[in-house]
Amino acid sequence: MRRFRSLLIGVPALLLLGLAGAGSASGYELCKADETPCASANMYASGTSFSASLVSGTKTQIQTMAVSLECTGSTVAGKTTSTGGSGTTAVSAEITSLTFTGCQTTSGTKCTTSQGVNLPYPAAFTDSLTITDAAGAGGTFHCGVLVNCAYTTTNASLAGFNSVSGMPRMAAQESMSASGAFCSGGATWIAEYEFTAPTPLYVI
User: Fold this and answer.
1) Residue 4 resides in a domain
2) Coil, strand or helix: which one is 40?
3) Mean pLDDT, the chain, as a whole number?
4) 118 in a structural domain
């Protein structure tokens, strides 16, 4: 499996193992073929919509000292706002949707969720999908009569790996702030996503 390039910033050390150490002066592109450089005919244009969902058989987790949640469904979607390429450091993008579904506490209390608070989020493709938002990217989770928590992060880097199938994956292990009733001061968001559109997709 060919990997996204160069060193990730802000990703736990476990996710850095095996990643390449430096990017290329040619910049990054979203490509329809696993080729470097990406031919212009294979480069996805600015405005391309993309989406990703949890890898089959996995769950997303939000772990805290007070209460931990798991969700059977989660999606990330958006569109690119540049093509990347020579002289650039990233393919810029905008996240327009972040969802969490089928959520409950680890003790079994069902949750309702408010999807994607503070949308849209600025984002960029390099070796990771980096999401930044000063107000905080995340969601709110209302579980039973006691828990009503907002979990957000101002900067997340989802480590990326290209796949021979043309459906790259990205892994989240991100610190989040928590606020609300019966919520601890911090949380960790853990998930593994697979891109479902466009296909094929390679981050070159």
Assistant:
1) no
2) helix
3) 85
4) yes
Q: How far apart are CA 189 and CA 173, in angstroms?
A: 5
What is the number of domains present in the chain? 1
Mean of pLDDT values over 5-18? 33
Query: By percentage, how much of the chain surpasses pLDDT 70?
Result: 86
7 in any annotated domain: no
**pTM higher than 0.70, yes or no?**
yes
Backbone angles phi, psi at 40, to 5 degrees: -55, -30
Distance in angstroms (rounded) separating the CA atoms of residues 23 and 9: 13
Radius of gyration of the chain (CA): 17
Spatial separation of the C-alpha atoms in residues 49 and 37, rounded to whole Å:
22
Query: How crowded is residue 107: how many other Cβ atoms within 10 Å of its Cβ?
Result: 9
- Condensed to tens digits (0 to 9), the pLDDT of residues 23-77 reads 444 579 999 999 988 999 999 999 999 999 999 999 999 998 888 899 999 999 9
In a domain, 6, yes or no: no
What's the domain range around 39? 13-203
Phi and psi, residue 93, nearest 5° = -155, 175
Mapped onto helix, strand or coil, the DSSP state of residue 139 is strand
Q: Which residues contact 107 (CB under 8 A, 6 or more apart)?
A: none
Burial class (CB in 10 A: 0-12, 13-18, 19+), 108: exposed
- The three-state secondary structure class of 46 is coil
Phi, then psi, of 3 in degrees rounded to 5: -100, 155
